[in-house]
Amino acid sequence: MRIIEIWFDDEHIYGKDESGQEYRQSLLWYPKLRLASDEERANYTFGLGGIHWRELDEDISFESFEYDDAEPSAMQRFFLTHKEINVAEFARSIGMNASLLRNYINGFKKPSAEREQEILSHIHSMGQEMINVTF
Question: Quick one: pLDDT band at residue 1, thresholds 50, 70, 90?
């Protein structure tokens, strides 16, 4: 599959392949593109295996448009939109390997339902602690 045309909206990059099939991916997977101006987004080149934005130092493979996880899960979306949370410290606080949590966040591995619930419960616990802060 080869993407021959791309376009954007505020939250997605869209691609059309040679057969006319359209695809989309969340820009949360590509923070540099998400924050880029229209002019920066328009300055790309097609390569043999993907799309390259030299000024942004960003690449998207053609293959990635066919991935099942074009949209981040709720857990992934939380961590991708809250960069202020230190993933290594969050993982340590629940006794999880930080690399494993990063793999969950970036879509390289999928957590079990139980593990995802454990992560969610800890996020809720942190939120409750923050709500209870007084000065």
Answer: confident
User: How many C-beta neighbours within 10 Å does residue 62 have?
Assistant: 19
CB atoms within 10 A of CB 134: 4
Query: Which residues, in sequence order, are bridge partners of residue 58?
Result: 53
> Residues 98-108: pLDDT tens digits?
999 999 998 88
Provide the residue count of the chain.
Answer: 135
Which residues have a Cβ under 8 Å from the Cβ of 62 and sit 6 or more positions away?
1, 2, 3, 15, 17, 49, 50, 51
Contact status, residue 102 vs residue 119, Cβ threshold 8 Å: no
> Token match 């991708």: residue?
80
Cα–Cα distance for residue pair 20/62, rounded to 1 Å: 14
What pLDDT, on the 0 to 100 scale, is given for residue 69?
A: 78
Are 123 and 81 in contact, with CB atoms under 8 Å apart? Answer: no
